[in-house]
Amino acid sequence: MSRTDFLAERFEARRPQLRAVAYRMLGSFAEADDAVQEAWLRLSRAEVRGIGNLGGWLTTVVGRVCLDMLRSRASRREDPLEPDRQSVPVAGPEQDALLADSVGVALLVVLQTLSPAERLAFVLHDLFAVPFEEVATVLDRTPAAARQLASRARRRVRGAEVPDVDLRRQRAVVDAFLAAARDGDFEGLLKVLDPDVVARAENWVNEGAEAVARGAASFAHAARRARTALVGGLPGVVVLDVEGRPERALAFTVVRDRIAVIEFFTEPGRPAAAGLVLDP
């Protein structure tokens, strides 16, 4: 086995956890995949013999990449989403599993209120058990300072009002979005979009309800080939090609019964990699 094949095999075994770390840091599937890909590029150029704990090394590399991306995002003045509360309960084993995914989305909303350094310290240590000594190297601070950042983040997360999530209610919002998109109903789209909605794909970002509604209204031809689905654990939509294969996918974050974030997967291979479960 060549060196590249050996590294690729070990990297792929850790990809799901690395993607989970990156997604909790960034709140974006596309950006998470970019961060993980950057970690692979750095691994392929590294002197592997000097890496004692490959899993820990990769986790800290992904953390450092995400930190840079968060700081870059902050410099562009991208505002975080605000947490919200919904109150309709969900029951049953299947719904319980889906609720666990949705609560993760709720936590993401809260995490976006933290500074990049607080977010990294909390995610790496509290969610993925990375020792403070390693967190400190990513942040270029002392372990004591990293511990303090995580403690501050922990207090803010515990004090935040994490939303209760009803998947059926979220799906109803997505269904309304899809119906309005199919009809090119601009006013109907505005009713289900948050005024500060963000729509983003691999290479573009669109912000604001009117701009996103205009884009969605022009999506009518594709919307007629769309089916509702779970996309990476979120309520979403999958557009199928003429042979019934995923052509693009959209994942929705719903806050206050309105769509706050739309994540598009359009590049070849991205829709299938997003984790699709088509609704019956």
Layout of helices and strands:
Layout (H helix, E strand, L loop, with lengths): L2 H24 L2 H17 L8 H22 L17 H19 L4 H12 L4 H8 L3 H17 L7 H17 L2 H7 E8 L4 E3 L1 H9 L2 H4 L2 E6 L2 E7 L5 E10 L2 E8 L4 H4 L2 E3 L2
Parallel strand pairs: 1-6
Antiparallel strand pairs: 1-2, 3-4, 3-7, 4-5, 5-6
Would you write up a description of this structure?
The protein has 280 residues and is α+β, with helices and mostly antiparallel strands. It is built from 12 helices and 7 strands. A 7-stranded mixed beta sheet has the order 2-1-6-5-4-3-7. The longest helix is centred in the first third of the chain and has 24 residues, at 3-26.
The low-pLDDT segments are 77-103
The total number of structural domains is 2
SS content category: alpha+beta
Question: Average pLDDT across residues?
Answer: 77
**In what order do the strands lie side by side in the largest sheet?**
2-1-6-5-4-3-7
Biggest sheet, open or closed, and with what strands and sense?
Answer: 7 strands, mixed
CATH fold-level name of the largest domain: Butyryl-CoA Dehydrogenase, subunit A, domain 3
Strand content: 15-25%
Measure the end-to-end span: 43 Å
Helix content: 55-70%
* Second-tier CATH architecture of the largest domain: Up-down Bundle
Sum up the structure in keywords:
single chain; 280 residues; alpha+beta; Butyryl-CoA Dehydrogenase, subunit A, domain 3; Nuclear Transport Factor 2, Chain: A; 2 domains; 7-stranded mixed sheet; 12 helices; 7 strands
